[in-house]
Design goal:
Length: 86
């Protein structure tokens, strides 16, 4: 019996979806991927709208990280080091 067969048998007894099974088995990343795939096919318009918003947000977040890093670099070069001499 394969792992897929075991999952199908367990799902049949409990009525859980694959995403719920993955979550209960501690496979959070797999659960998220299954939910993303399900949304992509069940609600394609909403999925595309959300994917576009997330892409814009990711770019904004990346710029924030780069800008913050640049500011921190500027601060570290303009202030004396706080490290102790040994």
């Amino acid at each position: 019996m394969t792992f897929g067969d075991l999952l199908a048998r367990y799902r049949g007894k409990t009525g859980l979806t694959q995403a719920e099974l993955a979550n209960r088995l501690g496979m959070t990343r797999m659960r998220a991927q299954l939910e993303d795939l399900a949304m992509r096919y069940l609600y394609p318009t909403a999925y595309m709208r959300l994917a576009k918003k997330m892409a814009v947000r990711q770019q904004t977040d990346q710029h924030t990280v780069v800008d913050s890093g640049a500011r921190m670099g500027h601060l570290s070069t303009s202030r004396p080091s706080m490290a102790r001499a040994t």
